[in-house]
Structure formats: C-alpha cells, structure tokens
Amino acid sequence: MTPQSAAAELRGVTMSYGAAQVVRGVNLSVRPGEFYSLLGPSGSGKTTCLRLIAGFETPDSGSVHLYGTDATRQAAYDRPVNTVFQDYALFPHMTVGQNVAYPLTVRGRPKVEQERRAGELLELVHLPGFAGRRVSQLSGGQRQRVALARALAHAPKLLLLDEPLGALDLKLREAMQSELRTLHGQLGLTCIYVTHDQGEALSLSDRVAVFRDGQVVQEGTPHDLYEHPRTAFVADFVGGANVLPRGLMGSAATGSAAQYALRPERLLLASTDAPGPHLTGRVQGSGYLGAFTRLEVVLDGRQTVTAHLPPLTSPPRPGDPVTLTYDPGDLRPLEPEAGG
Ligand code: ADP
Ligand code: MG
Known about the structure:
Bound molecules: adenosine-5'-diphosphate, magnesium ion
Number of strands: 18
Helix content: 10-25%
CATH superfamily of the largest domain: P-loop containing nucleotide triphosphate hydrolases
Largest sheet: 6 strands, mixed
CATH architecture of the largest domain: 3-Layer(aba) Sandwich
C-alpha cells in the first residue's frame, strides 16, 4: 500500500464561539475520492467543522490539513475546496449561465470558455438549455442543481456540502441524492457532506462520522454504524434501536455490557410456548407503514420497545398481550456514553 495523504484532516481541533466550546477535540481524516458525511443532531458542531475545513474559521487549537499540507492558517480562497450551502447563495441579478460561470469569471477566464463550461455543467446536472434563464424562474430543486454546477465550475478537488438538499421535498431529495452520488463517481470528487438526516448519510456515504456535542462519537461505514453502534446514542440516532438493560434479556445477553441494542426489525411476534428468548407485554400502539407494521409494546418491566413486523393483515390491537422473540445474536452490547 502506498502512503497517500488524506484529502482533508482535522487533528485535535477545538473551537469556541465566545465562552462556548462547540468543537471539542475533533480528529477526522477523509481519504481522496471518498464520500464522507458528518452526521449529528442540530447544534452538534458539523457546520463549524466544515467551515474549519473550508477556511471560514480558524481553530483555537489543533490543525487542519489538506492533501498533505498544513492549511490551518491558509486563507479560504487559497484552499482547493468549494462549498455548497443549504441556502444556495445564487446571484439573483445574474442568469443561470452567469451564475455557473462565476468562478471562471473571477479568475478572468475567456468568455468562450466560460460559456462552454457553463453549458457542459448545466448538462451534467440535467439542466441543458437553462443558461439564459433568470434565477427567479427556477424551482428549488433547479436552483440547488445550479448551485452544484457552480461549485463544480472550477474543478474543485474537494467539495464541501452543508445540508444542500435540506430545503427539498422527499422525492426531489432522493433524486438529487442519487445524482450527487453519480457525479461523485463520474468526476472522481472527494465530498464531505453535512447532514442531520441519518437515512441520507447512510445511503450516500462511504464513511460517516457521528457528531454529538462537538465531538465525533463514532466513525465508520454505514454498515459498521448500523450493525455495531458503540453507544446507545449512536444506536438510536443511526437507524433507531431498542436499548435494553441486561436484566431484561437474562441468559440471552452474553458478555458484561449493562445495555444492549436491538433493532426493531429483529423483533418477531411469537407464541408464548415458542423456544428462544421472550419479551412479554401489552401493545400500546401500532401503525401501518406499508412496507412494515410498527408495534409499540410496553413490557411487563414497563420498558417500551418498538418492533417492525412484516405487514400484518390483523395486527394486535392496543391492550392485547403479546410475546416477542429475537435471535440473541442480534443483541449488540453498548458502551456507557462518554460523559460531558
Ligand atoms: P450543526 O451544524 O451541527 O447544527 P453548528 O456547527 O452550526 O452545528 O453549531 C454548533 C454550535 O455552535 C451551536 O450551539 C451553535 O448555536 C453555535 N454557533 C454556530 N455558529 C455560531 C456563531 N456564528 N456564533 C455563535 N455561536 C455559533
Ligand atoms: Mg449545520
């Protein structure tokens, strides 16, 4: 294996706004060509980390590295990075073509090159022939694509995207996700993507860093995070999970963890005399979601668990007693949350 510099790296980075430390010792390393997401709840420090990589913020301590160069003190415009923000930030007084070509305009590229490149990029984002339109004549999804085309105009090595699809409705968001993923592959881009939407992070990313309170609490592939969440926070935030205390599982729990995660789709309805571990309780509520039926069950120990069952023609009703079972191999031991 040849040693290759990371595309972007944060090493022990901290940053405060006033008295509040909002980035608290973040280490992360994005490989060239990777689609890497920063995932976490609102306020967990994702945007601040992206701004540190872009050069819009400077760390209080630690360092930022881009392609093997210490970029901690480098100005934003000198970094090999382009950013797409959620609010698009298109120039309303310019045409679509002028917006897309803007990065070339400020670099003094010839007019013919600007127009040719704008045309190519608009084709790439499936907006051929839109160059002459006004920004005000575009839908939200179209504006987002124009913003993306503009970010690609100067052929960035590293594309930073901050919740770029947040304002779009579900259908369009899914279409744009798959376009982004395709562009990433076609152009060999490295993408760092900020989102609070775990489904989006799982479906788009090669790797994901999960943020909580200014720290990365776990990093891994979508499969790692879903199958092996380290803490209750990650288990719940990424995919949703039942967090069960050891006492509830008896001999089904192996190892010494105090808590275990069990995914809702790994719970099954069982008869009371079926073999295997049992959780017994009463139905509190159920919901039909097409692909599955969601059952909320209050266990005898008063804990509530959620089960996602294959669609049932006559699901148990609120108040009905039920027995749930699972494969002990699906229990995931959890570490205690790192405090403060
Ligand atoms: P995220 O993108 O994960 O939602 P941010 O990085 O935007 O989180 O914010 C992290 C924390 O920093 C939040 O508590 C937020 O209120 C605070 N913060 C962000 N920007 C500023 C700012 N310009 N001035 C003061 N506080 C800020
Ligand atoms: Mg943010």
